């Protein structure tokens, strides 16, 4: 138990409390993150995805009409979709 007491005392010395400004900054960040979460949860339809599928169908129909292959290249900034197999 004595060994644990020594370790606890050493850990207590390393703890630094946040300033009032630091606390406000963290509270503001938490509020922002909660707002982003709420916005993400409220999204029920993928409008961009639907528009992309519609445009692909139209484009492929037109390319088929001239005998071209059914292929498309989609450029994205999302790293998640860039790695899609």
Task: Give a summary of the structure in a few sentences.
This protein is mainly alpha-helical and 85 residues long.
Topology of this protein?
Elements: H1 2-14, H2 20-42, H3 47-65, H4 79-82
Provide an overview of this structure.
With 85 residues, this protein is mainly α. It has two domains: 1-44; 46-85, no CATH class. 69% of the residues lie in helices and 0% in strands. The protein has four helices and no strands. The longest helix has 23 residues, at 20-42.
**What coarse outline follows from CA principal-axis ratios?**
elongated
Low-confidence stretches: none
Helix content: 55-70%
Q: Any idea what the radius of gyration is?
A: 27 Å
Number of domains: 2
Total helices: the number is 4
Number of E strands: 0
Strand content: under 5%
Keyphrases for this structure?
4 helices, 85 residues, mainly alpha
């Amino acid at each position: 138990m004595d060994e644990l007491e020594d370790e606890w005392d050493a850990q207590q010395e390393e703890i630094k409390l946040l300033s009032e400004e630091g606390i406000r900054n963290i509270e503001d960040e938490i509020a922002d993150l909660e707002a982003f979460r709420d916005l993400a949860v409220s999204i029920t339809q993928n409008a961009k995805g639907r528009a992309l599928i519609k445009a692909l169908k139209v484009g492929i129909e037109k390319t088929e009409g001239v005998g071209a292959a059914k292929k498309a290249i989609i450029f994205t900034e999302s790293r998640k979709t860039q790695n899609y197999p």
